Predict the 3D structure of the following.
Amino acid sequence: MGMLRRAWFQIHWFIGITAGTVLVVIGLSGATLSFREEIVDALNPGLSHPGAAPGAVALQPPALLAALEAKLDGRRVNALTVFADTGRAARANLAPLPGQARGETRGVDPYTGALLPEQRGDAFFEFVERLHRWLLLPRDDGKAVTGTLAVGLLVLALSGLYLRWPRRPLAWRAWVRLDFGLSGRAFLWNLHAVVGTVALVAYLVSSATGIYWGF
């Protein structure tokens, strides 16, 4: 192994056993968040699509925001999420009240702008989102940490690609072939290389978006 290759191997190994451990937490929490709507809907039947009076039409986002703010007595709305699914409840992230450490997320009736009852599961997913985005740290500190970890993921992916580069890069089988004739550490190395190759695009996209949001 040449000196340059040995150096990149050490970098790849070090990032993998340090930042890689935290990146697993970020990845698992992100995967959990991807099923948020389905899980919350299952836990709260009827709240995702509140009933409407005959002939009622869902408000457009600006009108919905205005109707919501009129019912909040000056409380600020940090974000309002609406969905393409007509009649589906919107989701509002509200600023914290005096004495609260953080705000809350509530459903919003798309026809009237009224806040809906709190949904089961929302508190859990708020926790998971803070874990995913900021590792439960204060927001600014958490953004810096997750952004730095995203840089680490980028270096991890690119150094792995360098170490994986085959003699014949245009032969696609060299990239994705598992050699079941190997055993022990040799097979684990081959498995690691193939899985890393298959996941490379996802790693690059995840690191790019993480860097963007972190910095």
Notes: The CA atoms of residues 39 and 136 lie 22 Å apart. The chain has a mean pLDDT of 91. The first helix runs from residue 3 to 17.
